[in-house]
Amino acid sequence: MDTHSLSQSFIDTNIVDGNRRLRGRGKGEEELRLWEIAKELGVVCQVSEERVIQRFLELEERDNSVMREASREERNRKS
């Protein structure tokens, strides 16, 4: 394995581990905090806060789905 592959693998592992830690918290806590930070920065929205948080949850699930698929493709490519 070349150094670049080892480095990339280490980075990927860190991301997966970090995501696991985040998922271990209550569902929606991260998204709620994200919205609180956005409001502190002056972001306003025309829909309810609950809808904003729900959309953040949907985006997180989409991102997780994309990452799972990319991981499967990477494993298949290595096989």
Structural write-up:
The protein has 79 residues and is an all-alpha fold. The protein has one domain. It has 3 helices and no strands. The radius of gyration is 17 Å and the shape is elongated. The N terminus is likely disordered.
Key structural traits:
79 residues; mainly alpha; 81% helix; elongated; disordered N terminus
Q: SSE order, as H and E?
A: HHH
In DSSP terms (H or I, runs of 4 or more residues), the helix count works out at 3
Uncertain segments of ≥5 residues (pLDDT<50)?
A: 1-8
Structural class: mainly alpha
How would you concisely characterize the structure shown here?
The chain is an all-alpha fold and 79 residues long.
Structural topology:
Layout: H1 3-24, H2 29-40, H3 49-78
Helix pairs in contact: 2-3
